[in-house]
Structure prediction request, 488 residues.
Amino acid sequence: MTRYGMVIDLNICIGCNACTMACKAEHATPPGVFWGKVLEKEVGKYPAARRVFLPVLCNHCKVPACMDVCPTGATSKREDGIVMVDYDQCIGCRSCMEACPYGARTFHDKAATYYGNGRTPFEEAKQSFSEGVVMKCNFCVDRVEQGGDPACVQTCPTECRVFGDLDDPESKVSRLAAEKKARPLLAEKGLEPSVFYIGS
Amino acid sequence: MSLRLDEFLIDVKPQREWGWLVITYLFFGGAGAGLFLASLYIGHPWAEGLGLLLLLIGTLFLLLDLGRPERFWRAFFRARTSWISRGCYFITALTVLGGLDLLLQYAGADAATAWPVKAGAAVAAVAVMIYTGFVLSPSPAIPFWNSTFFPVIFFAYSLLAGIDFLILASPVLPPPVIDVARLEKVQFGLVLLCLLMVMSHLSVMSGSAIAARKSIQLLTRGKWGVLFLGGVIGVGLVLPLLLAWPALWQPSFQTMFAITAVLALLRLFGDYLFRFLVIRAGLYDPLL
Prediction:
């Protein structure tokens, strides 16, 4: 059985946010909505102070807390492990946002656009959601179904992201996770995320 | 230089997804169900109707909070796993069975016919009072809510608020006459229960995850400290306890009502504030 997942090497990430912009371009998300983003923090003290980066996205958990609390069934998990939101079923109650410890979801509360004259033809063609619903990363499921990688993976200039089948021990993502002892965020929550991080 | 994973301790993050509309639903929904249950027990159909009205007003706030309120009916689809979905059934059952009970009373139905409807409505009322606690308590993301105390606390607070509305409405409700002194004695016990449960919750949470401890800091020493300690605990629970004791022995109804009305208002203020602060003090754990 296929279970898609991702490994992100924090030692390589340079915080350029190319992944953030690739995601926005791929899904035409409205202003203020980020399905993937890069958290940033300053650590250490002068003269050894430096910035560190943590790219975050939906963790496509094996036991998704967001799915159980959804009262409509709008959130579901595919057989390949990708957690999806059906925007036609979502009622915008935001219980999934309260349940997700990763802050991976965004409520699209108003139809804001980047340009004053409403949605562009590109946005009209690309946007699969309406206002009043909760949105999140879908691992670029359309690209994955055609054998490609998610936009963030394809765009990353340092190749710090690797995507693939976690259930296949020979896949690049599985081997990397095993060799570099990649760890998920908040493992203690018991949600079995499919996004792992490398960092000593 | 290799990065350490624990350098990404992004700080706790407050939840901002649920605000005053949800809080107001929690208050009116719980109070309406509590008022219905108390009225059913004392056999006062007008007060039962008032309880249902409060519940429906509360539900309206919940509908207004939805991003797509016109799709609300979809919330009935996942009762197998979702407490919000189960809550929709509880609210519907209480409204239907409560309304049917009122109709049967109006039609003068005999006790044998009315009994199953009353029992079903009572069960639905209890379910409405506690299910909101179950909406919060399984949350893996917000440790302060992740507590088995919440269903019990919400039950006690809902009954407390329901009886307070009953006390306040008692002078204007048609007969039968409501025994306010007896209700005030029940309130004394309920306030003690609320106090015990809230303190127990805080005590358990003080040894929990970092976000739960920060929530407690917010409520006791942080920006919500005055509202929680002064409003919820002081004005909403301790002060009514202190003032209720002499009031319990007042012989005259007018004096008794005047005092209990003030106590009821204090408790209702504390109840709303409690629900407000529980929601606003919810914090997400740091990512690492």
Notes: Chain B has nine helices and two strands. Chain B has one domain: 5-284.
